[in-house]
Amino acid sequence: MPLHIVRNDITAMKVDAIVNAANESLLGGGGVDGAIHRAAGPDLLRECRTLGGCRTGQAKITKGYRLPARYVIHTVGPVWRGGNHGERDLLVSAYRSSLELALAHGCGTVAFPLISSGVYGYPKDQALKVAVDTIGDFLLAHDMTVYLVIFDREAYTIGGKLFADIAAYIDDHYAVEHSDSGEERCYRAMFAPCAPAQYTSQPLAAAAAAPADLNEALDRLDESFSQMLLRKIDERGMTDAQCYKKANIDRKLFSKIRSDVHYKPSKPTAMAFAIALELPLAEARELLEKAGFAFSHASKFDIIVEYFIAHQNYNIFEINEALFAFDQSLLGG
Q: Which of the four pLDDT bands, split at 50, 70 and 90, describes residue 324?
């Protein structure tokens, strides 16, 4: 199921299908289109000539020929004309049509470029937002692994205001952590373990349900990560599938966690489940502790995730977009 944002050469991706950002003729061009045709060889162009072109926002499929991928899905993104000519809807349609075509051909893994963000002029930050939102919505309803391949890491930034807000949050927390004395950090850890009041979105009483009696409290002390995770899924009335999809976690990995009471997840996996369950900071810390981890203000990764939890934004794809922009590991996977 997961959505991965990666830096790679899409023509080298060993997936079921790669997506080609083509023009309406489907007869090759520059950029990603040209690179895919060169890597696939002349047979790709011969097949493309039989397809009769493709309308903007639609997609067509061919064999992969010399590519590691079995298929090439050719889609036509919109040319940017200022944003008031239906460009977003057409770009959403290009992603959606490609995903539906991949699903119809039994593709379990698909790699996309950032469609329309090259010579077609679509602003890269907006193009990334459309890609993440559209692919993310599709993956909530379908089991597929999708790679969004960003060739040039520095060719885009996330939305200006969000980027600035996260950067300020990092500065406020990361800088303080590294400038305080050991005694001051100890005092903060003892008396102010949560985010500052202006970032705390729920009162503590509402954040974590108190156990009904002493026996229940003692039982929870011995809970493993797996047991706590499954209990919280039940408490929130979620299905397993709803949880692992919202966590950007593969179904097979979730099955391992469910079947092994002593399973120890990675920190990004544990945090991903805290996001999927929409846990407030107090409960997120508790779940992380069961996996043997803690939020650290010495880690930009931790601070960025904390920022989104504190602001009650539990969209894991948006969080991963921000983590990628700040060159951090991604959640889930």
A: confident
Going by their DSSP bridges, the two strands 17-22 and 71-76 should be labelled as parallel
Can you tell me the distance from the alpha carbon of 129 to that of 312, in angstroms, rounded to the nearest whole number? 19
**Residue 235 burial by Cβ neighbours in a 10 Å radius (0-12, 13-18, 19+):** exposed
Are 110 and 2 a contacting pair, CB within 8 Å?
no
Mean of pLDDT values over 168-190: 56
Q: How many whole angstroms separate alpha carbon 85 and alpha carbon 94?
A: 15
Q: Which residue has the higher pLDDT, 284 or 160?
A: 284
Set 16, 33, 125, 302: catalytic member: 33
pTM, full prediction:
0.76
137 has catalytic annotation: no
Q: For residue 40, which phi and psi values (nearest 5 degrees)? A: -80, -30
Residue with tokens 């705390």, as numbered in its chain: 200
Among 32, 16, 326, 297, smallest CA distance to 163 is for 326
The backbone region for 54, taken as left when phi is positive above 0, alpha when psi lies in -120 to 50, beta otherwise, is beta
Gap between the Cα atoms of 170 and 154, Å rounded:
20
